[in-house]
Design brief:
With 330 residues, the protein is an alpha/beta fold. It has helices at residues 10-20, 59-67, 85-90, 103-119, 121-129, 155-166, 191-197, 217-222, 240-248, 280-285, 301-320, and strands at residues 2-5, 27-30, 48-51, 72-75, 94-96, 147-151, 170-174, 187-188, 200-203, 227-231, 252-257, 290-292. Helix 1 (10-20) packs across helix 11 and helix 4 crosses helix 6.
């Protein structure tokens, strides 16, 4: 089995190369370029391609993969909102993902962002480096005995519920499905109730057509004044212009974002030498209460090793022709 890996960094190559010794019949070629309609042609001669969160697996990309006889798309991530699933299905290409590699990795990062935004750690770090030991503008509030509202209680949301519970917070949650493992530590409420009661709101649902821009002017107005909002899920859950309007209206005590709408050209790239023309990111970062990281929630040793292991097991599953819970298009 020959697999072309797109959009790889040295840490991807390290984690996969380590696992590969258990899969001698799998041959991997690592590419730096991401998978798009312009790079899909490179898949000629490969049985499978492996892509990541910001790959552009739209209609034309899938058509080219099909023309090149690619039979398997391996997503080395949980999300797949960047894939044209209908076209993938039409051409009988199988697509397998890694649904839960380390929920705690993302949930712990969500709490890190919540704490950093609340206690202004991003500002405190810079101040102390400049020998400014004053506390002006650094005052936060206790999470203890406040209310955490968790939107989406799958694997990551459930881990976040447990963390917030451990902080001594009252935890409320909104999800279309209720997770029985959270009985006794979180109470399910409607989205409106969650918005109006929470001091900390953390988003953990996948991006779908139904929840695109679920955080918008109308839903922001329903939130408590002084709320902390954290998004480690997908950028387009939040309408950025409305978020900026809300920040300007002093709605938020803090905002922590690991994902944001215009992240695609930025994710995992060093653009420090570039002059960015229209950067909403820069506008968001101009606010003292906003903390942004670049899609690093998943980025722990444990998660990378689990991603490599599950992706290569997905290859085995494909080769054996078995069904799998990791199928995106079952
Ligand atoms: P999961 O599939 O275990 O759970 C998602 C939950 O969201 C499910 O319980 C589902 O019922 C619920 N849901 C779906 N639509 C909803 C809606 N409109 N409102 C409320 N709940 C809704 O997924 P998991 O593993 O917990 O991942 C959640 C998301 O986190 C992923 O879809 C992905 O977008 C994001 N993610 C971010 C990472 C990062 O590095 N920042 C890494 C991995 C995942």
């Amino acid at each position: 089995m020959k697999i072309l890996f797109y959009d790889t960094k040295s840490y991807d190559q390290d984690s996969f190369t380590r696992e590969l010794e258990h899969y001698p019949d799998i041959e991997i070629k690592f590419l730096k370029a991401d998978l798009t309609k312009n790079t899909a042609e490179l898949s000629h001669g490969y049985d499978a391609v492996c892509a990541f969160v910001n790959s552009d697996i739209g209609t034309r990309t899938v058509e080219i993969l099909h023309e090149n006889h690619v039979k398997l798309i391996l997503m080395r991530c949980a999300g797949f909102n960047n894939v044209d699933l209908e076209t993938v299905k039409k051409y009988g290409i199988r697509i397998l993902r890694v649904p839960g590699y380390s929920p705690e990795a993302v949930a712990e990062h969500a709490m890190a962002l919540a704490l950093a935004a609340n206690r202004r750690l991003h500002k405190a770090y810079v101040k102390v480096r400049e020998n400014d030991f004053s506390l002006g503008s650094l005052m936060g509030f206790n999470f203890y005995q406040k209310t955490a509202g968790i939107v989406g209680t799958g694997k990551i949301g459930a881990a976040m519920v447990r963390i917030c519970h451990g902080f001594g917070m009252k935890v409320i949650a909104y999800d279309v499905y209720h997770n029985p493992s959270l009985a006794g530590i979180a109470d399910y409420v409607s989205l409106d109730e969650l918005l109006s009661q929470s001091d900390l709101i953390s988003l953990h649902c996948p991006l779908t057509d139904d929840n695109y821009h679920m955080i918008n002017r109308e839903t922001i107005q329903k939130m408590k004044d002084g709320v902390v909002l954290v998004n480690t899920s997908r950028g387009a859950l939040v309408k950025t212009d409305d978020l900026i309007e809300g920040i300007r209206a002093r709605k938020f005590f803090g905002v922590g974002l690991d994902v944001y709408e215009e992240e695609t050209p930025n994710v995992f790239e060093d653009r420090s030498d570039e002059i960015l023309e229209h950067s909403v990111t820069a506008r968001l970062l101009s606010f003292p209460n906003v903390m942004i990281t670049s899609h690093q929630g998943f980025f722990t040793r444990e998660a990378l090793s689990a991603i490599a292991c599950t992706t290569l097991e997905n290859v085995r599953t494909f080769e054996r022709g078995e069904a799998s819970p990791n199928d995106v298009n079952p």
